[in-house]
Design goal:
- With about 70 residues, the protein is an all-alpha fold.
- The chain has a domain of about 30 residues.
- The chain is about 35% helix and about 0% strand.
- It contains three helices and no strands.
- The model has no long low-confidence stretch (mean pLDDT about 75).
Amino acid sequence: MSQLNHLKIVRGDASPEEIAALIVALTAATPSQAEAVRPAEAWRDPVRSMRQGQSWRAGPGAWRASARRD
């Protein structure tokens, strides 16, 4: 394991158990990479509300065409 100098105790005399508890607490508070980058849910996708190549005209069957997911 390589030496990483991310934490520095500047005051006091911390025991190895206290340092381990601090590292566990900081690790638990940090979101994992999988949680940090979640894919957008389909219902929030703005592309879903855009109809490429389709017009928004009223007429026979317009209500049926508006619900189509092409």
